[in-house]
Structure formats: structure tokens, C-alpha cells
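User: I'm writing a short report section on ligand binding and want a predicted complex to refer to. Could you take this sequence and S-adenosylmethionine and write out the structure as C-alpha cells? A short remark afterwards would be nice.
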Amino acid sequence: MKPSQDNYVPTHKDLAVDFVNGDFMSSLKSLRSFAKGEIIAPLEGLTRGPKRYTSVQCGKGPDDHIELNSDLVYINHSCNPNVAFDLSSRDPRQWHLRALKPIKAGESLEFFYPSTEWDMDQPFNCSCGASACLGKIQGAKYLSKSDLLARNWVNPYILQLVAERDGETRLRSRL
Ligand SMILES: C[S@@+](CC[C@H](N)C(=O)[O-])C[C@H]1O[C@@H](n2cnc3c(N)ncnc32)[C@H](O)[C@@H]1O
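Assistant: Sure. The C-alpha cells for the complex follow:
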């Protein structure tokens, strides 16, 4: 579920969707400043569902995908992100959105999609404009461990999948 522009009511006090005409052109902006490390929002009202362009992966399993059911779904990807979805706790009540750097009022919130997603439903050519932009964004499966670790936050289940992938590669090369 993606909140629409019709009769829009923000789901989070300090955040607002910047609706732009055109497919996937909208974004989520901060209405106040946040300090580095500050929790911007707990993740509440989540539902399980299939992998979609709106879902967020929350574990290693095929069914480990949640829908945010809020304005947070409008957070775009950046290769130089300013926020992270931290789904590292075993307790979903601890899952949250956190600032990775100081954020000013009016700034767009952007997270590094491969920090949650292994193999994305809807890959795209990134337009984040960062100097270290990775180009095509399709999920962590397609990136090196060093490219992932350079983005300040990667969820532990993604790092486990990377370790399994890289272990298999080493084993195969020995055969
Ligand atoms: C969950 S939506 C994010 C909100 C989206 N901008 C919208 O208006 O609905 C994810 C989609 O937004 C687009 N998107 C997000 N970040 C992007 C980026 N850095 N470059 C290009 N497209 C991006 C892609 O089409 C992606 O599949």
C-alpha cells in the first residue's frame, strides 16, 4: 500500500511526501533536522507480503518481506544514503529508521536499497548523483562485500547471504 496524493494525510509528524508527477518520481522529505544516529521513526503497522518494489526485506527467507504501509515507502535509494532501515533485532518492535548522518529540514531521506534487499523485484538505473554511484541497483546479490560495507549500514541477514555466496564461490573455484 502506497499513500496517494488524494486527501493526503502524513503518517509521520516530522516527515512529508513530496509528490511529483511521473512514475516513481516522488520522495520523502524531512520537516526538521535529525542528528546522526537519531531514530527517525520506529517501524509500526507492518504487514508481511510478497516481494514487491514497495516491500522491505527483513530476513533471509523467501517470505521475509514486509510492507511499510506508510509514507516511509516513499524513501528513495541513494548510493550515499542519509538513513537506514535497521531490521537487525530479533524483536520486530525494535525495527526502526535511523539517521546515518546529520539531516537538515527539507532534505530528502534516502537509504541504500541493497542494505535490506538481496535480489530486488524492480531493478533500476540509479539517478542519485553520488560520486560513488553504483549505476544499476538490483540488490546486494550483485555487489561485492566492500561495495556494501562502504555504505555505513547493511543488515546482518544481507551480510550472512553475502558470506554464503562468497563461500560458495571459493569452494567452486577449488573444484
Ligand atoms: C518504493 S519506490 C520509492 C518511491 C518512488 N520514488 C515513488 O515515487 O513511488 C521505489 C522506486 O523508486 C524509484 N527509485 C528510488 N530511488 C531511485 C534512484 N536513486 N534512482 C532512480 N529511481 C529510483 C525506482 O523506480 C524504485 O523501484
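A remark for your report: The radius of gyration is 16 Å. The chain has a mean pLDDT of 95.
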